[in-house]
Amino acid sequence: MLQMRALSRVYRADTVETTALDAIDLDIADGEFVAIMGPSGCGKSTLLNLMGMLDSPTGGSYLFDGQEVAGLSEARLAEVRKAAIGFIFQSFNLVDELSVRENIELALLYHDVSAADRKRRTDEVMDRVGVAHRARHRPSQLSGGQQQRVAVARALVSSPRLILADEPTGNLDTAHGEEVMRMLQHLNTEGSTIVMVTHSPAHADYASRMVNMLDGKILQERRRAA
Ligand code: ADP
Description:
Largest sheet: 6 strands, mixed
Structural class: alpha/beta
Distance between the termini: 21 Å
Mean pLDDT: 92
Strand content: 25-35%
Bound molecules: adenosine-5'-diphosphate
Helix content: 25-40%
Shape: globular
């Protein structure tokens, strides 16, 4: 699905240069569940942002479904991103003025989807992640684990090819963290490709491949024994 070659991201501020990503080579195939680990500042978020086309590399090549995205315009990147990628964040990023249902439907608003289809697809993902009985609640009325389930539903409703999760369990207690991990694992068995940044070795164990980073480079990769 994606192929990165010598991908770099250098931040420049006045006279200071920070090499956040240093010529990364990484391939991710359809259906994989990849965990990215490493100490704070090693470039995990930068890598996830590039993968999600929220940021552009300063060097190298990034093929998404065979198409080079490294040189695409902002507008075109947004199009590809909208069509293909779902995001899950550590802090859920739900809108508390909206109900659970509205939060999820919002993700379809700028897609070419009729109101009836929006409703049907929202019902379907709420069922899938087990929040249908909370459809009319506000996010703040839910537990952290339930809020993250809503965020997962929002990421899923547009049927993305790739789900990117940045420390999805970072704000959850152990039990709710495990619950979200089991859900991601289940989605992966149903065919979703998932890339997740995590600090938790236990949660990285849910993935089929672990990528360890240090100082903007990939230090080590490990596949889980089948
Ligand atoms: P991680 O997610 O592993 O904690 P990051 O990808 O956030 O690491 O950061 C990698 C490096 O790039 C760090 O040294 C960080 O300080 C630097 N960096 C990240 N974002 C910026 C930015 N917007 N401007 C300048 N430096 C940045």
